[in-house]
Specification:
By secondary structure, the protein is of the alpha+beta class. The chain folds into 3 domains: about 5-125, no CATH class; about 275-425, ABC transporter type 1, transmembrane domain (ABC transporter transmembrane region fold, Up-down Bundle), CATH 1.20.1560.10; about 445-650, P-loop containing nucleotide triphosphate hydrolases (Rossmann fold, 3-Layer(aba) Sandwich), CATH 3.40.50.300. Helices cover about 60% and strands about 15% of the residues. It is built from 18 helices and 17 strands. It has helices spanning about 10-20, 80-95, 105-115, 135-140, 145-175, 180-225, 235-275, 280-325, 325-330, 340-385, 390-430, 495-500, 520-530, 545-550, 560-575, 575-580, 600-610, 630-645; strands at about 5, 25-35, 45-50, 55-60, 65, 75, 120-125, 450-460, 470-480, 485, 510-515, 515-520, 530-535, 545, 590, 620, 645-650. The strands form 5 sheets. The chain has a 5-stranded antiparallel β-sheet. A 4-stranded antiparallel β-sheet has the order 9-8-11-12. Strands 10-17-16-13 form a 4-stranded parallel β-sheet, with helices on both faces. A hairpin with a 5-residue loop joins strand 5 and strand 6 (about 75). The protein is globular and about 105 Å long. The N and C termini lie far apart (about 75 Å).
Length: about 650
């Protein structure tokens, strides 16, 4: 068969060449059962389907289409694809169960059930990386095509609806009624219902598709953004960002689609008005009214901006006070706990009132005011010119259509105003996704191992927004087996240098090499396999997960029995044996904010174990021993010196 490829590599190369998208990457690889693929090849594009039974692969560039060897697309029936693995599997299962002497009916049911549960194919999906251009992501997902289909269906349905009511109006105005015209009117209304249903379906798909890509982009940006850019923000401000991202999705999608569809209706209403009585009057007034609505919408947007800022300030203050309540109990008199809160609420209420008044005018007066103004203009013009009843009816219909279009438009504008404010809060996360780490060079795997663990030359670093260099002309060489102690005063750049060596920060100038190759060649992932670090206590975290997960974050998950045994041994060497014995589930006990609570010294030793268990050639420990008593410190030093191939310890003098 011309659409079957001998290997997944050939199918992948052909698929990417056909799609012509240089930055597509495989996102998920999963084994699928027959019942998972019951929908055929319509929901997995673009993807390659590797058939486990035969070893052949199918390239699926578009829903329901497969890629042939000559580069053309073919439509293959689902039955043809199923036969590639179903026939051999059915014969194999039937041969096994025939020996049991069961009835043919029972045999058929058992075989069907077993075939449906067997893994039959390995499906690799492809998508644009989260950090690529957002337009290219939308194009790769087919979003523009579906948005165009939604707008086209809405335009066609709107035109058919106008035609249907034009037929009815003509019959009413002429005083003649024909059964044929009535049946035609009924058919047009039925078509309009079908088109509006399709518009609703396309609109839902567009919203879900764009919302999914937007969340993926924001998540990628939150993982890629430089921590220095959000370090000054508190927990409350970060929570506000999370809330605003949800608002951006809900309001932005609904408002954006409503505004696009409203533009179609506004144009249609203007066209109808141009054929009615007093066309110049009504069109001019309609344009002026739209401009007035736009001005009010802008004032509402400005007022909402101030309201959002005050709301986020209240949220930030509340979360920060809750987070630091124990400190307030110890340090602040109860009479001062709520100082200023009433004034903040009064300002918030005043801003909310102003914003609600503008929104009420926008929603209520905007469309209904046009209805009154438009009818008044038609009445004045009609009394002066004496237009016939047909043109008067058309003009009235145009005004009503304008009213409906303005209703949809003001609803969309109100939602877009909220989405724009939310965008101001999360746009740096959106743009940060484009700062994704570049993959390692293809030649990195062929590099010869070197005893030179780390070599930096003339490295300098300046924090964003500052002029003074925290590091300048730093040079250091670490070889296998070295044990280094880095001491210095607070603020002298010790932790910054450690972060640069670990690949967490990029130097503003200078050369940074590990094993004889630079960072760009090895890539971020390869660099972190060479350097493991335990940052300072406030920059290290215990996740709400089993202790074994917190210990083995730098390894593959789920862990192997050997990984668990090594983690247990390291914990005992660090003096955590009594802690593990107290835990009901041992190393599998849930820890963190929602689990077993650890002391600061216990957390510090878990962070030590986490760095050691990464088995990196170089281990960097930043103030990791500050919370330990002398006896425990001695145990931890012995463990670290014994297990770390090379070691850099950062500490105060």
């Amino acid at each position: 068969m011309s659409y079957l490829w001998a290997s997944p590599r050939e199918a992948e190369d052909a698929l990417l060449l056909h799609l012509g998208h240089a930055r597509l990457e495989n996102t998920t690889i999963q084994e699928m059962r027959l019942q998972d693929l019951a929908g055929g090849l319509t929901a997995i594009a673009p993807a390659i389907v590797h058939i486990l039974a035969t070893g052949q692969t199918i390239a699926v560039p578009a829903p329901g289409r497969v890629l042939a060897h000559d580069g053309t697309l073919a439509r293959v029936s689902w039955k043809q694809v199923r036969d590639l693995w179903e026939a051999p599997a059915r014969a194999r299962e039937t041969a096994v169960f025939q020996q049991l002497g069961v009835s043919p009916k029972a045999l058929g049911k058992v075989v069907e059930r077993r075939i449906a549960l067997q893994p039959v194919a390995r499906v690799t999906h492809f998508a644009a990386p989260p950090g690529s251009g957002f337009a290219s992501q939308l194009q790769a997902a087919g979003w523009f095509r579906r948005l165009g289909a939604a707008v086209a269906a809405h335009t066609l349905g709107y035109g058919i609806g106008l035609t249907a009511w034009a037929l009815m109006g003509q019959a009413a105005m002429s005083g003649r009624w024909d059964a044929g015209w009535f049946h035609g009117w009924t058919i047009l209304l039925a078509l309009n219902i079908a088109l509006e249903a399709s518009v609703t379906w396309w609109q839902g798909w567009v919203s879900v598709g764009l919302g999914g890509l937007l969340k993926q982009r924001l998540l990628a940006g939150s993982l890629e953004i430089d921590s220095d850019r959000i370090r000054h923000q508190g927990v409350g401000q970060l929570l506000s960002r999370v809330l605003e991202s949800d608002i951006l999705e809900s309001l932005g999608l609904a408002g954006g689609i409503a505004a696009v569809l409203a533009c179609v209706e506004v144009v249609a209403a203007a066209v109808v008005m141009s054929f009615g009585a007093a066309a110049a009057w009504t069109l001019s007034l309609f344009g002026l009214w739209i401009a007035l609505v736009a001005v009010v919408a802008w004032r509402f947007t400005v007022s909402r901006k101030l309201w959002v800022e005050q709301r986020n300030q209240l949220t930030n203050g509340l979360v920060e006070k809750m987070n630091g309540h124990r400190t307030r109990i110890a340090q602040q008199p109860p009479s001062l706990w709520h100082t200023g809160e009433d004034l903040e609420l009064v300002d918030y209420l005043r801003t909310s009132t102003r914003m609600d008044r503008l929104h009420a005018w926008l929603i209520a007066v905007g469309p209904r005011g046009w209805l009154v103004a438009g009818m008044a203009a038609i009445g004045v013009a009609f009394s002066g010119t004496g237009s016939d009843s047909t043109h008067l009816a058309i003009a009235i219909g145009g005004v009503i259509l304008g009213y409906q279009a303005l209703r949809r438009m003001v609803a969309g504008l109100g939602q877009l105003a909220g989405a724009w404010q939310a965008w101001q809060m999360v746009r740096d996360l959106f743009h940060a996704a484009a700062e994704a780490e570049e993959p390692a060079s293809r030649n990195a795997a062929a590099l010869v191992p070197s005893t030179q663990i780390m070599d930096i030359s003339d490295v300098a670093y300046t924090y964003p927004g500052r002029d003074r260099k925290v590091l300048n002309a730093c040079s250091l060489r670490i070889r296998q087996g070295d044990r280094l102690l880095l001491e210095g005063l607070s603020g002298g750049g010790k932790s910054t240098l450690g972060a640069i060596l670990a690949g967490l920060r990029r130097p503003t100038q200078g050369l940074l090499m590990s094993g004889g190759v630079d960072f760009a060649t090895v890539g971020a992932q390869g660099w972190r396999r060479r350097v493991a670090t335990a940052p300072q206590y406030h920059e290290n975290h215990m996740l709400a997960a089993p202790l074994q997960f917190n210990l083995l974050m730098g390894r593959a998950w789920p862990p192997s029995p050997d990984d668990l045994r090594e983690a247990w041994a390291v914990c005992k060497e660090l003096g955590l044996g009594p802690l593990l014995e107290r835990m009901p589930a041992g190393i599998a006990e849930m820890v963190g904010d929602t689990g077993w609570q650890l002391s600061q010294g216990e957390r510090s030793r878990v962070y030590l174990a986490r760095a050691i268990l990464q088995n990196a050639p170089l281990v960097i420990l930043d103030e990791s021993f500050a919370a330990l008593d002398p006896e425990t410190l001695e145990l931890c030093l012995e463990c670290v010196l014994r297990r770390a191939p090379s070691l850099l310890v950062i500490a105060h003098p």
